[in-house]
Specification:
Length: about 200
């Protein structure tokens, strides 16, 4: 990725809120950073007309507004909109743009469950453990009664969320469930032992 990106215009007076990650941006370059870092979830934002209005009204990017609105009106392919935004800002070189946009295109083909998992993983990585916990638990409800790699993944990550929130007793219960799964492994047992030690120290 390019080392230094100069802003096309000054920053916006009023920010745009990326609701999916609950963060505000003030420039098209920050929008590019969001797209680049969140290829599995950015399509939802890229298809919103309110984003295009913000680029025009707050950032003064009339040409970009016209271009991406035309793309949007012809279909719902977010990767094409991303490519246009990247090209406008010179945020990435041609090879990098093509690689990122191909990842966005492939992400759009994922199932609804896979996309929700990706969004929940992002919440976890962003230290938003309570929100991630709610997401993982909801996914687990839909997998109730199954014992597969995905349910094991959910059990383990639910335990991790509780652990990060310092609820070691609850985390231990979930790590135990993960270890008892058909796909349980030594990592589950090690995490369970750690939680049990932390409980004794409390």
């Amino acid at each position: 990725m390019s080392a230094i990106i100069l802003c096309k215009e000054g920053g916006a007076q009023a920010p745009y809120e990326l609701k999916i990650i609950k963060k505000r941006i003030y420039s098209v370059e920050e929008l590019c950073c969001f797209i680049y870092s969140n290829v599995y979830i950015c399509d939802e934002e890229l298809l919103k007309y309110e984003l295009y209005e913000w680029l025009r009204e707050e950032c003064g990017l009339n040409d970009l507004y016209a271009s991406i609105t035309e793309i949007r009106n012809s279909g719902d392919e977010a990767y094409k909109i991303a490519a246009d935004i990247f090209a406008y800002t010179d945020y990435l070189n041609k090879q990098e743009r093509e690689a990122v946009c191909e990842r966005i295109r492939k992400a759009s083909l994922l199932s609804a469950t896979e996309r929700r998992k990706s969004r929940t993983d992002l919440l976890f990585l962003d230290d938003r453990y309570e929100e991630a916990l709610a997401g993982y638990e909801e996914l687990l409800k839909e997998e109730m009664g199954r014992d597969n790699k995905f349910t094991h993944y959910l059990l383990y990550n639910i335990a991790c969320c509780y652990g990060r929130l310092f609820y070691f007793d609850i985390a231990a219960d979930w790590f135990k469930k993960a270890s008892e799964s058909k796909y349980g492994d030594d990592e589950d047992k090690a995490a369970l032992s750690f939680c049990e030690r932390m409980i004794k120290e409390e």
